[in-house]
Amino acid sequence: MKKQFNRMKQLANQTVGRRVKNVLHILSHAQIERRMELVRVVSHNTHKRMVSCLQGHIGTDAEKRHKKLPLTSLSQAMVEGGNQLGEDSLIGKMMEVCGEAENRLASELMHHELQIEKDVLDPLSQLAEVDVPNILKQRKQLAKLVLDYDSARARWLQATKSIISGTNTQALTAKADLLKEEMDEAMNKVELCKDQLAADMYSFSSKEGEYALYFVTLLEAQADYHRKSLTVLENVLPTIQAQQGNITCKQD
Fold first, then answer.
1. CATH number (domain holding residue 171)
2. pLDDT tens across 213-234, in order?
3. Band of residue 111 on the pLDDT scale cut at 50, 70, 90
4. Do 155 and 239 touch, CB atoms closer than 8 A?
5. How far out from the chain centre does Cα 55 lie?
6. More confidently predicted of 205 and 122
7. Which of 6, 69, 110, 223 has a CA positioned 20 to 30 A from the CA of residue 75?
């Protein structure tokens, strides 16, 4: 019996050693966890401010977004005003041409904001509201599993002690074996969760460069949008200037 108890004690010491290694491994991720939480906060705040810069309604389709843009309303008002003034009105003609240009600008803005939503806002939201929180939840789950293991281990140790002082050795040994299985199962859950957490943390750390590209994408999209908007204006300005010249000639 003493030999069996010593063997159980040895197994307990081995299990404790594994748990110490687990704790040290978990603690080594503390810095990454703090960084992840900071990334979550700044990404959330940036996403919120970026949404406030949009003129269209986020989440709507292209047609609805285009209709709701202030530039679209301006375009419609100018075109309608030009129609009301009639074809013989120089002001009306100018308003109609400008109104059509504003509509094209609205179209460029709509496409730009759709791109920003798809390539920047959605990934930022995924990072701040899903990816990082899920990893942090795993950390809490791991802490719970460690507590479950501690409880299972305490019950098993108590059972092993009862074998020495008890009279029904066979029944107590059987009970200890069952508790040992529960403890091993609890430790396996800790190991699996720990490995998954470590893998997810590593994945997060390795993708930081990818996350940083979201903001490069934002600037590139803005540059492309302004170039296209400038092209719209440069294409319409000769027409407007020609009409302005006609107006001047008629006045002379």
1. 1.20.1270.60
2. 999 999 999 999 999 999 999 9
3. very high
4. no
5. 22
6. 122
7. 223
Tell me, letter by letter, the H, E, C secondary structure of 22-62: HHHHHHCCHHHHHHHHHHHHHHHHHHHHHHHHCCCCCCCCH
Q: Which two tokens stand for residue 116?
A: 């920003």
Give the separation between CA 222 and CA 213, rounded to whole angstroms. Answer: 14
Coil, strand or helix: which one is 130?
helix
CB atoms within 10 A of CB 92: 18
* Cβ atoms of 189 and 209 closer than 8 Å: no
The candidate with the shortest Cα–Cα distance to 214, out of 112, 123, 114, is 123
Cβ atoms of 109 and 68 within 8 Å: the answer is: no
Residue ranges making up the domain that contains 92: 1-249
* CA–CA separation, 109 and 66 (whole Å): 8
Q: Output DSSP code: residue 168.
A: -
**Looking at this protein, which amino acid is placed at residue 79?**
V
Closest CA to 70 of 60, 55, 51, 58: 55
232, 105 contact by CB (below 8 A): yes
Number of domains in the chain: 1
